[in-house]
Amino acid sequence: MQLPKMPSFSLKGRTALIVGASSGIGTACAVALAEHGAKVTLAARRKDKLEILAHQMEKKEFEVKIIELDINDITKTSDTISKLETFDIFVNSAGIAKHSASVDTVFHDFDVVMNTNLRGAYFLTQAVAKNLILEKKKGSLINISSQMGLVGGQERAVYCASKHAVEGFTKAMAIEFGNHNIRVNTICPTFILTDMTKKTFDVPEKRKWIEEKIKIGRIGKVEDIMGAVVYLASDASSLVTGSSLLVDGGWTAG
Asked: Residue 148 sits in which domain range?
């Protein structure tokens, strides 16, 4: 009897683009991929933050490059990506939230959230895929979505709409790109403690609501995303595409 061989989680020899790498989940994804051998390119609007992160990562002998990128500027972003190397792995962690009751939503907040979370994410993913198709290379494209892409949440109508849409285009792109051996998936975290979410956790009743919904009994940490991104980036998930990897502590199970 011949035993099956475990697929590798190693990312040695691969290149990864992490957008929104300057903080929170994006930083965690960049470190996780680098620790497993990928050469990483860090991208975000805040170049000063990227320089600090790159310096810290280089101390650990990771191979790191940085580029300044604002995914709201679709034309410039697509042009920039077309001139870069073709990445084997892509992670988009750029995102924004403007929470309010749905009856209080204003046009500006709606547009700001959709421009980043949906429009920006869509055309950024498209740009990376185009390079892979042109070069006839396989790839793994990962958008950081949210558990709110699968359920609803209080004061989150616009955010939920944006993330449900990301789940939709992920499935459609997975179907279109499958014959190019390009996989497209999302990671859907629950509430993760970051600089962006700190204001929510600072409100006692909101923190209580979150903690009651997460069945595992604690709020999320950026480290909780690291294994998920390595899995989806590696050959260990070679048959996984068009899927949402929930890291939600059981929130959506209830």
From this structure: 15-242
Domains of the chain: total: 1
- The widest CA-to-CA distance across the chain, in whole angstroms, is 65
- Burial of 204 (C-beta count, 10 Å sphere; 0-12/13-18/19+): exposed
Report pLDDT for 196. 80
Q: Mind listing the pLDDT tens digit for each residue in 75-132?
A: 999 999 999 999 999 999 999 999 899 999 999 999 999 999 999 999 999 999 999 9
Report pLDDT digits (tens) over 174-229: 999 999 999 999 999 999 998 888 888 888 888 888 999 999 988 999 999 999 99
Strands (E), 6-138: 15-19, 39-44, 64-68, 89-92
Whether residue 167 contacts residue 145, with contact meaning beta carbons closer than 8 Å, is answered with yes
Cβ neighbours of 182 (radius 10 Å): 21
- Residue 52: which CATH number? 3.40.50.720
Residue 8 lies in a domain: no
Q: Is residue 3 part of a domain?
A: no
Q: Is 231 a catalytic residue?
A: no
Two structure tokens written together for 157: 């109508």
Tokens of 136: 């006839």
- Point out the catalytic residue in the list 62, 159, 177, 251: 159
In a domain, 254, yes or no: no
